[in-house]
From TrEMBL:
Residue stretches making up the Septum formation inhibitor MinC N-terminal domain: 9-80
Region feature Disordered, mapped onto this chain: 111-149
Coiled-coil intervals, chain numbering: none
Residue span(s) of domain Septum formation inhibitor MinC C-terminal: 154-255
Family of this protein: Belongs to the MinC family.
Organism: Mycetohabitans rhizoxinica
Alphabetical UniProt keywords: Cell cycle, Cell division, Septation
Name the record gives this protein: Probable septum site-determining protein MinC
TM segment ranges: none
Function recorded in the entry: Cell division inhibitor that blocks the formation of polar Z ring septums. Rapidly oscillates between the poles of the cell to destabilize FtsZ filaments that have formed before they mature into polar Z rings. Prevents FtsZ polymerization.
Subunit structure and binding partners: Interacts with MinD and FtsZ.
Length: 260
């Protein structure tokens, strides 16, 4: 029987969306303390998320024990799946359990300062939203839907926890985005229902992308890799309200959406 016709498995090239854990220090004690500060209050937030350890922000003369970083992430219920490193770092960053991977999104930062129209949030050195990291050759998750072509994609059913939808253009969602669900688009995202999960727009660095939502109750919102969570509660002027979310000077702006 031809391997291509095998009913038991397939090997196909593919891309997986993941988070980058961007290492900016060699002080593991400080790193662990920051992880604890960030996630002890919300231990389920990044639980079971796949992350790639990104070493590229380290100074050229500094090294970090990658194996210890990986074990630290596992202790916080994240799953290290690869290492992102520049050529000079590869000689010391090799770890048998993790492959080197290439990141399609070269620029992924978070908004560290409060912006007009947005609630304050704390700075962090921990996972940053990233897009299209080339992780491995294999099938995408069975509950992941991907659109074809740079056209608007419309989803007319609710998305339950664990489901993910990806659009190469704009994405329109007509049903509830539940806690634990994720909507991702290279363009804008329009949600005509409550957003309670995660919404990531402009994932290939499109700083002009926006998120429109008729009821904002999110776990995470992100545009072009600049993201915020709701550890600090959203203000009453936007929580549960119709809003638009955009970038201004690399800060997320959350504004009430005037529908009349």
């Amino acid at each position: 029987m031809s391997a291509k016709k095998s009913p038991f498995f397939e090997l196909r090239s593919g891309t997986l969306d993941t988070l980058l854990f961007v290492v900016k220090t060699t002080d593991l004690a400080e790193m662990r303390a920051e992880l604890s500060r960030r996630f002890d209050a919300t231990p389920e937030f990044f639980a079971n998320d796949v992350v790639a350890i990104d070493l590229r922000r380290l100074p050229v003369d500094q090294r970090v024990p990658v194996a210890e970083v990986a074990e630290m992430l596992k202790a916080f219920r994240m799953h290290p799946a690869g290492i992102v490193a520049n050529d000079a770092q590869r000689s010391w960053a090799q770890l048998d359990a993790l492959p080197f991977v290439e990141s399609c999104e070269r620029r992924a930062v978070r908004s560290d300062e409060p912006a007009a129209g947005a609630s304050p949030q704390a700075a962090s050195t921990v996972p940053q939203a990233a897009s299209c990291d080339m992780m491995a050759q294999g099938d995408a998750a069975a509950d992941t839907e991907r659109g074809g072509g740079n056209v608007t994609r419309v989803i007319d059913k609710p998305l339950r926890s664990g489901q993910q939808v990806y659009a190469k253009g704009d994405l329109v969602v007509l049903g509830l985005v539940s806690y634990g669900a994720e909507v991702i688009a290279e363009g804008n995202i329009h949600i005509y229902a409550p957003l309670r999960g995660r919404a990531l727009a402009g994932v290939h660095g499109n700083h002009g992308a926006r998120i429109f939502c008729t009821c904002l109750e999110p776990e995470l919102i992100s545009i072009a890799g600049i993201y915020r969570t709701t550890e600090t509660p959203l203000g009453p002027d936007v929580l549960g309200k119709s809003v638009q979310i955009r970038l201004a000077d690399e800060k997320l702006i959350i504004e009430p959406l005037r529908l009349t």
